[in-house]
């Protein structure tokens, strides 16, 4: 049985953006090839870790930006 999908398809599957057909092919491949399944599991772990690293500006940075903008005068055209 030949399973045709690309690495991009596998990533789309991780992010729940793949078609049902592609997702089914990848799930079959994961069952048949333990090494592929291990790689997918590693990627899933990385995706979860990345989701934890949401970038937020520190409060003092936001405050400085707001203060700077209040001190600037708007020039009319």
Mean pLDDT: 84
Rg from alpha-carbon coordinates: 23 Å
- Counting DSSP H or I runs of 4 or more residues, the number of helices is 4
Number of strands: 0
Indicate the percent of residues in helices.
Answer: 55-70%
Q: Which class of secondary structure composition applies to the elements?
A: mainly alpha
Instruction: Give the percentage of residues in beta strands.
Output: under 5%
Profile the largest sheet.
Answer: none
> Low-confidence parts lasting 5 or more residues at pLDDT below 50?
none
The domain tally reads: 1
Q: H/E order of the elements?
A: HHHH
Quaternary structure of the protein: single chain
* End-to-end C-alpha gap: 69 Å
What gross morphology would you assign?
elongated
Explain what this protein looks like in three dimensions.
The protein has 77 residues and is mainly alpha-helical. It has one domain. The protein has helices spanning 7-14, 20-32, 34-52, 59-71. Helix 2 packs across helix 3. The protein is elongated, with a radius of gyration of 23 Å. The relative contact order is 0.09. The mean pLDDT is 84.
Topology (elements, then pairings):
Blueprint: H1 7-14, H2 20-32, H3 34-52, H4 59-71
Helix pairs in contact: 2-3
For the structure shown, list the relevant keywords.
single chain; elongated; 77 residues; 69% helix; mainly alpha
Nutshell version of this structure?
The chain is mainly α. The chain is built from 4 helices and no strands.
